[in-house]
Amino acid sequence: MAENVSLHVLVRLLQSLVLMFLSQLVVPGYGQKTALSGDMRTMLKVRDDLLGIPENKVILQDWSSQDNPCNWTRVDCEEIGISSVVVRRIDLNHRNLTGPVPPSIGLLLNLTDITADGNQFSSIPQGFFQAKQLRLISFRNNLISGKVLDKLTTFQSLRVLQLGQNLISGRVDPLARLNRSAVEVIDLSGNSLQGSLTTFSGFSRLVSLRLGRNQLTGDLGTLEELTSINDVSLEENNFNGTIPTSIISRMSSVNLSRNSLRGTFTLREIFVPGFITTLDLSENRIQQVAPEFQSPGNQSTTESALDFFWARGVRKITLGGNGLSGSIVSFPESASTFNLSHNMLSGNLPEDTRATFYANVETLLLNNNSLTGPVPKGFWNMEKAATMDLSGNQFTGALPGGAIIMPSLQALNLSRNTFSGPIPAEISNLMRNFNLRTVDLSFNNFSGPLPRDFPQGENYTYLFTGNPGLCTDDDFFRKENSLTRCSKPSRAAVIARWAGAGSSLGVVLLLTTVSLCLWRLKVVKDNEMDEDLVRAVNSGLISTRLIPLKELEKATSNFAEETKIGEGGFGSVYRGFLEGKKVAIKKSSDAVLHLVQGKQMFMNEVQILSGVNHPSLVSLVGCCMTKKHALLVFEYVPQGTLAEHLYYRRGEGLDWNQRLKIARQTANALSYLHFMADPPIYHRDVKSANILLDDELNAKVADFGISKVVPYQQFSTDHISTTTGVEGTPGYVDPEYYVNFRLTDKSDVYSFGVVLLELITSRAPLDFRRGERDNTLVKMATNLLRTNALHLLVDPMLMIVFDDNEDVKKNILSVAELALRCVHRLPLNRPDMQQVAREIEALSSVQFHVGAYKSTMEEEDMDFIWTAYPAASRGSPSPYERATGSSGSMEFRFGFGR
């Protein structure tokens, strides 16, 4: 009996040893465990499906370099028990993958999340729909077509469905068969879907519903049933009926713009304090608010009026493009964006001493109404305002002199009113020392001489025409705005002036002699190099050359007007010869060093610029700082700006190889600033006018400096907040920046995306002549690419080879699709500059046979180009071209638009 027990124990011991040995083979660690599990083998099949498409091989190098899927980029695994590992989440966002979605993903039966936004996937095969445990499906911004929604009913655990910005067609009706008690987020915006909101009846947990830019019809009554709904975006459909105010008042974000909604409502109904923060009802058929409202004093009235006293806590209110009539009783106290443009509002604007509106507003659009009377004084004290458009009304009175406190203002449009009196010098001060760059005061009754100190240069746009009483002796403004020359003083006045001057001539001569001696001593002192800057250079803190002011004066013939080649926020730019070499010298305006900490800002800028070293960045040669002036000396880049070449104001046009090279070099320079500079630098004003070209047409990015440096203490965040107002140039600026005034690296990515579109199209980033649908290049490109109309987007000069070379056509399409990812509305959905640089590097690795097309063009081909694309003509640039470096655009010339 004892022997049997011993034998039994021995057998159990041997079994345990065998199991331990096998476990070491199967699951010695996480990596080995995954190598033999079913999900791991399936992931290898997913990889093979993706790599079977040649374009994906370079992109997925990190997947192909090892055979353990759990170590691949953005693949999350989970242990089940002691011997199994399953794949839970796959993130393929913004990897520029192409082809169909791998059907083998459907074999991952434990997969819960799949995200693949911002790729070029063309379809979702039937096999994908076997992964029935999926809770999150996101394929936004792809090229997926077909009737995908018919197959989604297999996902009964689905909580988040995001297929926005694709080419999906069919009806939304099949979604009614999803598990209505599970779905929380639906985004199908930007497709070609049909149907009505009744499909979503009974979705009790639905929080966010985004169906904008489709072909949906019917009324909005179903929204009343969605008791959990918080975010609705239904813009650009064909919805009709009335606005369900009771449910809207419980949401935080509502966009119902560009439909056919009608009816009346009271603002008090909608703006329940503590709920809604963003409301966009623009371009519908709403004619008035409810005629009865109760004012804060509890006095009823039957006057049709808009009382925004109730809109407390609301950040954005957009009601433009309706038929609203009546007057404005009060302004919202917290709104940063306030748009009532293109309505039929009348009456005087209220002073509104109750609200803090004047302190918070950033974008104010009241244009194209029938508003009257003077502009309230508070309007000239909006410290955060970046855009103010009051054009197309009946405002009267004079503008306040010396009382305009708007340091963040970038664009001011007061055209087509009846303002009178002189133009205050304070407006020119805002342009010289702050951010104001575009001023339209045309077609009013302004009179008197134009202030003399308006800065000129490519960064500024002025419109003063249509003011018969306005005059100037400045030839530039007279020619551009059809102004008269100011009348000369009468002969009697001249004689009287000389007589008065003669009586004190002796005293003046005596004082002059003394003053001249003192002045010479002061000049010597003022022109001495700043001691702090000298110490910083000598100690190695700043590694650049100090250049005496005398040498720079000699290099530019004492900064003669004919050597001036530009003007910007820092000051004027001059061309000069220093030791036999051409240089570009930036000379500060008088106000720069007078700013608080202006000297320290300049020294910080020199320190950063002297530490930047990249072949595609304009390099710093040296600097100079005296008591009165701060000067930066850069290498001279001889072939002008990319904008001049794209808009045929210089050179003979750029072929596709040259454009690709410029894109690659610019992307590499920005990637260097973002990821290699220490501290990182955000450019803030990426545009074709800030990309210079040398004699070999190599790109040199210019105009980055201290205002773009990311502070060390903010490295842990994804943004920095600016207090200096809106940066950048209209048409290139990240739209998100106008909403929250937060600057991120993705703002540069957006601007670079616009430059990519310029390289493809040679079209201006902003042109209101193209109509509301296409006034920005981003909207125009999005609309044309969505309808597979790339040929309507490409620069006509490129079309000569585009039609005959399939490789060029495919390459241009890839660049265009990358550009659209860069200009995605949401910063989180944009790639970073490192990713962009890598993708352009891959796209520009092939040289296309396109170089000979210019020399072989027939004269009739050129005639076609000039006729089809007037911006290609080599005439003198418009005021907008000088202001932005772009051609063919009439930005702000005829109002700001909606």
TrEMBL record:
Residues 559-843 form the Protein kinase domain. GO terms for cellular component: membrane. It comes from the Eukaryota. This is Protein kinase domain-containing protein. Gene3D superfamilies: Phosphorylase Kinase, domain 1, Ribonuclease Inhibitor, Transferase(Phosphotransferase) domain 1. It holds the Pfam family LRRNT_2. Belongs to the protein kinase superfamily. Ser/Thr protein kinase family. Its main location: membrane. Residues 1-31 form the signal peptide. It is found in: Membrane. The keyword Cytoplasm does not apply. ATP binds at K587. GO terms for molecular function: ATP binding; kinase activity. The keyword Nucleotide-binding applies. The lineage of its organism: Eukaryota, Viridiplantae, Streptophyta, Embryophyta, Marchantiophyta. Keywords: ATP-binding, Glycoprotein, Kinase, Leucine-rich repeat, Membrane, Nucleotide-binding, Repeat, Signal, Transferase, Transmembrane, Transmembrane helix.
